[in-house]
Structure formats: structure tokens, C-alpha cells
Amino acid sequence: MPIATVNPATGETVRTFDALGPDGVEQCLADAAHAFGTFRTSTFAQRSALLTRAADLLEAENEDIARTMTLEMGKPLTAARAEAAKCVKAMRWYAEHAESLLADEHPAESDVRDSGAATVRAHYRPLGVVLAVMPWNFPLWQVVRFAAPALMAGNVGLLKHASNVPQTALYLGGLFERAGYPHGCFQTLLIGARAVEAVLRDDRVAAATLTGSEPAGRSVASVAGSEVKKTVLELGGSDPFVVMPSADIERAARTAVTARVQNNGQSCIAAKRFIVHTDVYDEFAERFTAGMAALRVGDPMRETTDVGPLATEQGRSDLEELVDDAVGRGADVLCGGRRPPEQERGWFYEPTVLAGITSEMRIDQEETFGPVATLYRVADLDAAVERANHTPFGLSSNVWTRDGAEVERFVRDLQAGGVYVNGMTASHPALPFGGVKRSGYGRELSGHGIREFCNVTTVWQAAG
Predict the structure, then answer these.
(1) What angle do helix axes 62-73 and 166-178 make, rounded to 10 degrees?
(2) Which of 185, 268, 335, 454 is catalytic?
């Protein structure tokens, strides 16, 4: 696809950009390799000061970058502001905690006495140049949650962002340099998807991280594997939202609406499959459907808008195909299920709730990337667990119950990278984030995330 800013609320092409040519890519690679040669020896105090300055700049420019994100991918402006603020929080968290997260580890003397060493320690060193292939749905947060820990570990970054958010990508490339980072520490590559393989195969690139679709993840993992390079993948999700009889149904239904339509429903960790015990199914379905139907769809620049347009025309077409297939095979439309008739331009779709889902429907196994929810009625705890795990994805999960034994069962048996009890899944800098199965591998954020792109070096030293 072309590298361009296209307003999803109108379909208007606002600005186009030329892709970086081979000479430009080579210069960026050379600059990154040169920067790593010196940046890797910087102190934590120096890196912390740089990241704090970047956070200060981003905080001061919140409104401008929020409007850019909304213009490019359609998230409500209030959500865009919150995304920028979350990035500031993460940058400051890593600036404060990175040194302790990467402190040397010393095994107990009794455990290593027979190794012959006087001292042994595990020491964390940066890997080098890391290529980040990032998506459009959280165009600032997805990048910062990689960049903040990677830079604090002493790595340098190359960003290949989604082609429909070029202005956000260029902002990020300039942000770190304006904060005082040495030239080449973090650069944006305006390149198409076909140019990624050559960059990843370059000997100067040590590793890669990707957040995006399963096909994109497979492609990057395949190339990186053939080059024996480390990767972290955060791919799709079809998170279950399980509601048991002991739950606070009113609060669960209210939270379910937010969990489904955050970011216009275009979130890997959004709850998508609502699995409800038969004893409370009718009450939950009524409350949840009413909440979805009451959402205000419209111009994402308006403060009162709850749900804006889908980011791309193709994205809306893909969503419509899933809904139409389900309805054609007998699904019940409790609300929505169409384009808003009052929105003549742009890529809008009504918040939708579907019930009566069967395994013959594509929507039962495919990810719905938009404001469409599927409802399932289950008879008991065993059926809830089985239904929750009946997906190729395993990013996160939401469980609503006040029964401690049920909580332990869900934690034990749900096939997901997270179990959020009586609340909705959300990422936080102090919490590890990632999935299992076709949702990818590796972890972002927390200490787990910053160590992903480190060389864990065993330092063995003899006496004398």
C-alpha cells in the first residue's frame, strides 16, 4: 500500500510520502551501527536523562500528536490523548527502573562452589540494532513500549511503521533526536513491507520485534529464523470475556462495552468473545447490547464521540464479510450489523452484537478487528473454559467471578498470556505483556520486556 495519510473519517488522502530508497536505507543502517558502537557504553544515568527529556517533550506535545494519530487512523481524540499520556508514563517508568531491572544477578555461593569460581554473575548487555515493525492501531504506544526499554538497555532502534501512519512515524523518529539522543539511536524508515526482509537480513541488525497480523509475524519470524536472529512477536487476539453467576453483572456488562470498543474495536487485547453462564446470560446480554447500541458513532475529532471509523477501507470490508457470513449462517443480530446510514463518507461501522454463533461461522475462529462482539451461552465452568480455549489465539482473557475456586481454575486452565479477574485487559509498563499459540511469543514491558533484547552474559571469575 502507498505510504500516505488518509483520513478514515472522510476517505480523503491528506498527504503522500516517498519511500526511502536503497541509499537512504543504507545510510540509516550505517548510522544505527555507528550509534550502537558508542551508545552501548553509556551509563544508566545518561540513558535515563535522555529518556526523561523525551517524555517531557511528548507530554508538552500531547495535543498535537494526539490529533495526528486521530487524523491518520481514526481513534477518538480523547483516546489519542490518553495514548500519548500512557507513553509518557512508560518512558518515565523505564527511566526510573531500568538499572535495577538489569542489575547483575549473583547465584548463591553454595550453588556454584563446585564450578571452581571465586565469583559468578549474570550480566545483561544490549544486543545491538533492533528492527521494530509496528502496526497502526496504537501508533504511538506500540512503538514506545518497545523503544523505552530497548533504549534503556543500550540498544538502538530502527522503526518500520505501518504505511498509513507516516506522520506519527516521523514524529517518533524526531522525538528521540530532539531529546538529545546521539544521531542514529532511533530512526524511522519510511519503507514498504517488501523492503523489510532486506533490512532484517542485514548483518548490522541483531534482532526484530513485530506487533501485527499473523501473516506478518510468520514472515518476519521465518526470515529472522533463517538468519538466527532473536524475535519477539505480538500478533492477533480473540480474547474471551467470561461471566459467571457470582459476578457483578451490571459492572461486567458496562466494562464489557469498553473492553470491546476500545480503539474503535481495533485492539488485539480487546475482549471479542463474550462467554456467559446460562444462569446470567439473559441479563448480561440485555445490558451489554443496550450499552453497545447507545454508543455514539461519528467524527473522532469530536469530544463526544465514542466510536470513530475503522482505520482502513479494507478493514471495514473484512469486518463486513465476517458479519455477513455469520448472519447468513444463522447468527442473530442483537444490535448494529451495518454501516451507519447517517455516515455517508468514511469507514464507519455500527457497534454490533451477534448471538447464536456456531463453529460453521468464520467469526467463530477469526479475529474481528472492529466493534463487533460475539455472545456465547455456556452451561457450566467446564464449558466456559472449553469455549474460551476454542481459538487459535491466546493473547489475554477476562474473567468475571467472585468465587475463589473458579478464579484458580481459570488461571490454571485458560490458554492465554494474561488472566484479568473482574476487570478488562490493559497493558501497563510494570506488567509483562504477550501471548501464546498464534498470538505470538516473547514478552513486552516489565523486566521481562527489557531483557528480551539483552545478551545474558555469564561472568565466571577464578580466585586470584
Answers:
(1) 160
(2) 268
